């Protein structure tokens, strides 16, 4: 995956709350379709699960984004290392 694709996958708590309120689709927004289908089948746990999600959505979005940011950091680190290796190779070639 490239850096731009991962950045496009970053989610917002505000959008998750809107989807929770209007459609009950906050898990689908985070890419957790199995849990989403179970949520719909149980009608939001008959309201209990829905109430619980009212307070846990920001944490779920933060965990989702933290995984993405970690992957982005790894990609950027590899790009910096490759750039450094190219610069060292150019300096060595110029000396020869």
Q: Give the percentage of residues in beta strands.
A: under 5%
Q: Using the CA coordinates, give the radius of gyration.
A: 21 Å
Envelope shape: rod-shaped
Mean pLDDT reading: 92
User: Would you report the number of β strands?
Assistant: 0
Which H/E pattern describes the elements? HHHHHH
Distance N to C terminus: 37 Å
Our count of helices gives 6
Low-pLDDT residue spans: none
Structural class: mainly alpha
Summarize it.
Helix content is 84%, strand content 0%. The protein has 96 residues and is mainly α.
Written description of the protein model:
By secondary structure, the protein is mainly alpha-helical. Helix content is 84%, strand content 0%. The chain has one domain. The radius of gyration is 21 Å and the shape is rod-shaped.
């Amino acid at each position: 995956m490239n850096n731009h694709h991962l950045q496009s996958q970053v989610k917002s708590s505000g959008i998750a709350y809107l989807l929770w309120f209007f459609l009950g689709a906050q898990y689908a927004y985070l890419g957790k379709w199995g849990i989403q289908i179970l949520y719909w089948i149980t009608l939001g746990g008959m309201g209990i699960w829905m109430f619980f999600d009212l307070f846990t959505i920001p944490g779920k979005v933060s965990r989702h984004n933290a995984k993405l940011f970690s992957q982005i950091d790894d990609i950027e680190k590899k790009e910096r290392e490759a750039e450094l290796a190219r610069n060292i190779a150019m300096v060595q070639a110029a000396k020869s």
